[in-house]
Design goal:
- There is one protein chain.
- With about 100 residues, the chain is mainly beta.
- It contains no helices and six strands.
- Helix content is about 0%, strand content about 40%.
- It has a six-stranded mixed beta sheet, with no helix packed on it.
Length: about 100
């Protein structure tokens, strides 16, 4: 495993799809507009990673803040980080 890869004790953290790709690819599989919570499924591993919108930077396709309407089934690029509650999505943007 490369030293730059995200990994946890079990080795099942998502991995970039292509070498040098700066983000992970996935799909929003759950999204609750009311509670502003959701889950992204990694394309590479199938792992489901939760997020709370208040803790996520949402970018449009050009790298600007905001500008996308989250919905279930949306293909996204994402980044992750560790919190006291485990792995969480920290950045979301529409996949190209």
């Amino acid at each position: 495993m490369q030293s730059g890869d995200l990994d946890d004790e079990r080795g099942d953290a998502p991995a970039p799809e292509l070498p040098g790709e700066p983000y992970y690819r996935g799909t929003v599989i759950r999204w609750s507009r009311g509670s502003r919570h959701g889950v992204v499924r990694s394309e590479a591993t199938g792992r489901e990673i939760p997020f709370e919108l208040q803790h996520v930077v949402v970018l449009d396709g050009d790298g600007n803040l905001g500008g996308i309407e989250l919905r279930e089934g949306l293909a996204v690029g994402f980044d992750v980080g560790w919190t006291s509650r485990g792995l969480r999505v920290t950045k979301l943007f529409p996949a190209r």
